[in-house]
Amino acid sequence: RSEGTTAFTTASMTDDGTGSDKVAGDGIYTAAIPGASANTMRAFYLTASDGLVSTRFPTKLEPSADVPERTCLVRVGDGAASTRVNTYRVWMSNDVVNTFRSRANLSNELLDCTFVYNDTDVFYNCGIRFHGSPFLRSGFGWSPNTNRSYRIEFNPDQSYRGLTEINLDWTEGSSRGPLQEQASYWFFRHLGLPYSTQEWVLLLSNGTRMGSYDDVRKIDGGYLGMWFPDNAEGFIHKIDDYFEYNVDGTSYSNIDEGLHADARHPPLPDTYRWHFEKRSHPEQDDWSHLFAFAVALNTSSGDPRYEQSIEAKIDPRHFTRMLAAEHAVGNWDSYGYTRGKNSSFYYALPEGKWYFLAWDIDFALGSGRGAGSSLFEVTGQFPEVTAFLNYPKYQQMYYDAFQELVGGPWRTSYGTNDPPTAFDRFLDEAADVLVAEGWGDGRRNAIKQFVRDRRNYILSQFPAEPVARPPQR
To answer: Does the N-terminal or the C-terminal CB of the chain have fewer CB atoms within 10 Å?
Structure first.
């Protein structure tokens, strides 16, 4: 059927080598869907029968206000796109579009769509929904054919690049721009730190060319396999706000905090369940590993066992380098800075150590903190981080990380006649792609200026003498 009509037309599938069937008797049954005018959406399903039992693909679900009927979709004459990046097409039925428009934007109920990669690989009956925190999608009534962030999930028997879900982040086209997160992760990469791989894609939704989008690798099992190949069996805990919603799910209130262990934060799952959501092995409601981490990180720095407690749970060099990278780019919206958000803790197994991971860098490189912002800005909700960074041994590691940054990758020739640095070349190449796609230049020069000014500030903050190290125990 065509979208807008209710009656289906039947086309018999054959395996006799006639009509659209290529080879008789090869076990592949074929039928042709008749042509239609350009921009027509065709919906179809398949049935097979042995005379006694019939099956349907996709499986028929009872349609409801929240879950429309499932079919396969093909949009006729969806024009070829001129682009330098990979093309993602999403096709949705009228019922799905109308459901998006009538429900709360915060709904995570998956709706049916067809996903097409580079006009070659077709994935029917994917699930699609809006993606992102309540800060980005309160209210109701958004159309899926306008710029928003999406989660797309694939059927296990037809994964996409080995993935069963992807995040498509709209880069917002605001004063922040589409370049800053990739540019921030460039510095993480050159410090040898884990980061989320990203690629810009051209998204077309029911034929509408959308704005600039990133396909962002989320922190999941594949991420762990890439960064922790020998220790990928552990627990991911997403650091986030605690949210409460109004009755219709369109607005919210929130609280965020650090990793505490005190009288107000007893070792009970519900103390930590919402701020440190378990994103792997959720079926195991055992939180003892997080309780122990909270206790260790909150050991008094005056306790002679402080170093032993800390280093039994984390690699302090990794922890200080992550905090330094976040503070260098000015990403205040993260754990250990001003927000208990946009980060994860990973408890690596079988190693048994915790790692701090960055995620969703929305405010950075000139759109977050200024070039002269303090390297030690840590709000009061993170006393465990303040104590850690004030401890002489770990403070020296923190300074060492900044020294490695400004002595290596953190360089730009902006405003001089010097040849481009490695970072300049990376940034220019990426910005040129954005310009070619009509997405602006991602604040190219503003980012370079921030890197220049931030480097000068960081250099001015190094102590004249090395920080005294405590006696080794």
So the answer is: C
